[in-house]
Amino acid sequence: MTAPVPPPPLPEGAKPRPAPVIDAEWAPHWAASLEGRLVVQRCPACGHTQFYPRAHCLVCRHAVEWEQVSGQGTIYSFTVIRQNPSRSFRHLLPLVVALVDLDEGPRLMTNIVGSAPEEVRIGAPVQVRFQLVSDAAALPLFELA
Length: 145
Hints:
Blueprint: H1 27-34, E1 39-42, E2 49-50, E3 65-68, E4 72-81, E5 95-102, E6 107-112, E7 125-132, E8 138-144
Antiparallel strand pairs: 1-2, 1-3, 4-5, 4-7, 5-6, 7-8
């Protein structure tokens, strides 16, 4: 994977994207993000992969482990946000919000970046990249592969 990149310069009056609140269940995910690695939880008992983090496997309730994934996936669905009054997001418009099915199984909500919204299609292959949002976290964003 690639190292996280800093966010682009903010336009005058804009606020940075909010950083996530990091708790015990999310801490391994955000620590890996700072290294440019995407991790999900895998159950060693039944093999189920899941994201977002939980204390137990959703299938068999066994304790789960963190595992690095490829960061490749497919767009399951998306929408384009063209209006947002928040100064933290206004400069990002139009913002493509997507559900991405990772090649390893889990589905996650993210943004598609680096392409015009008109280029984004359901079923398109995507690759993760990370953007720093704080000293403790980098957001996993996706771009068309």
